[in-house]
């Protein structure tokens, strides 16, 4: 029961990241770069604290360090820019659907055996993404924002693949946040140099800290604690709940509409990925 509750809590944290990003950026409470920088800094702070409390000292990981940092930065800022103009539910659908496609592509390129059902499932998931990205009169999707979310998903996919080489998951995660945070802060401070003044309000800062410290930092810590006790397929399937949770949160907290197109796309993406993960 404790394992189930911890896994469910982590999925809620992942979905909450989408909702918090959307709440902050759609309301114009903070700009995307500042949100990402504060998220990185607060995530680094909480992870350093967790490592200090549990281990008594800080040691930066060496294996795949720079790949992890680059992938995390791509994910964080693609995530922030994407949610400027895309609803939380739809954004999460694009994000996690593309993550699954990225991981399957990497598996195929790496020579791993992939069953026909998995290929079919990936194709169905891709069809779901194409459905929500296809321009229609009733649904207008900002293609640049969608591209940012796709880039974020690819970054998260590479971050996940890079993490497979690490024997210390939380240490590697802390390292990526600790090194990535100064880069994010530097980008935020450089905004005025490009004629883009930073937009920061107490409300936006609070949401960014909540996203970084709680739903990212602590959420990732709980997830990494749970993963050793879950089968790989179970861990993958558990993440399929995230788009549904984010969509429900967007409807409940942000007043986002529940349209038939969203429902069909969600069924296609989640159904396709579930099929691809069958034994």
Give an overview of the whole structure.
- With 279 residues, the chain is mainly α.
- The protein has one domain (2-112, 141-254).
- 76% of the residues lie in helices and 0% in strands.
- α2 (32-55) packs antiparallel against α7 and α5 packs antiparallel against α11 (260-276).
- It is globular, with a radius of gyration of 18 Å.
- Its main location: membrane.
- It comes from Maritimibacter harenae.
- The chain crosses the membrane at residues 36-54, 66-84, 90-108, 120-137, 143-161, 173-194, 200-223, 235-254, 260-277.
Distance between the termini: 24 Å
Q: Could you tell me the strand content as a percent range?
A: under 5%
| Low-pLDDT sequence parts | none
Radius of gyration: 18 Å
The shape, in one word, is: globular
What's the number of helices?
11
Number of domains: 1
Keywords: Membrane, Transmembrane, Transmembrane helix
GO cellular component, one term: membrane
Main location: membrane
Protein name: EamA family transporter
Task: Give a quick summary of the entry.
The protein is mainly α and 279 residues long.
SSE topology:
Blueprint: H1 2-26, H2 32-55, H3 65-82, H4 88-109, H5 116-133, H6 143-163, H7 169-190, H8 202-226, H9 232-238, H10 241-254, H11 260-276
Pfam family, one: EamA
Protein name: EamA family transporter
Transmembrane segments: 36-54, 66-84, 90-108, 120-137, 143-161, 173-194, 200-223, 235-254, 260-277
């Amino acid at each position: 029961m404790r394992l189930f509750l911890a896994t469910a809590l982590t999925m809620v944290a992942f979905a909450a990241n989408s909702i918090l990003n959307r709440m902050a950026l759609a309301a114009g409470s903070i700009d995307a770069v500042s949100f990402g920088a504060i998220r990185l800094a607060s995530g680094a702070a909480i992870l350093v604290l967790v490592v200090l409390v549990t281990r008594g000292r800080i040691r930066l990981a060496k294996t795949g360090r720079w790949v992890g940092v680059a992938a995390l930065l791509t994910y964080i800022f693609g995530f922030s820019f994407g949610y400027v103009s895309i609803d939380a539910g739809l954004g999460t659908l694009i994000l996690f659907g593309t993550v699954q496609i990225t991981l399957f592509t990497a598996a195929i390129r790496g020579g791993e055996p992939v069953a026909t059902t998995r290929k079919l499932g990936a194709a169905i998931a891709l069809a779901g993404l194409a459905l929500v990205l296809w321009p229609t009169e009733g649904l207008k999707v900002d293609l640049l924002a969608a591209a940012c979310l796709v880039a974020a998903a690819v970054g998260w996919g590479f971050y996940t693949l890079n993490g497979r080489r690490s024997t210390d998951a939380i240490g590697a995660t802390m390292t990526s946040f600790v090194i990535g945070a100064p880069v994010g802060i530097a980008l935020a401070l450089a905004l005025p140099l490009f004629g883009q003044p930073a937009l920061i309000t107490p409300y936006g800062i609070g949401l960014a800290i909540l996203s970084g410290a709680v739903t990212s930092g602590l959420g990732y810590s709980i997830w990494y604690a749970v993963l050793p006790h879950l089968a790989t397929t179970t861990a993958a399937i558990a993440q399929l709940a995230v788009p549904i949770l984010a969509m429900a949160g967007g409807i409940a907290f942000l007043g986002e509409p529940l349209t038939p197109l969203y429902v069909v796309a969600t069924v296609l993406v989640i159904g396709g990925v579930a099929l691809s993960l069958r034994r």
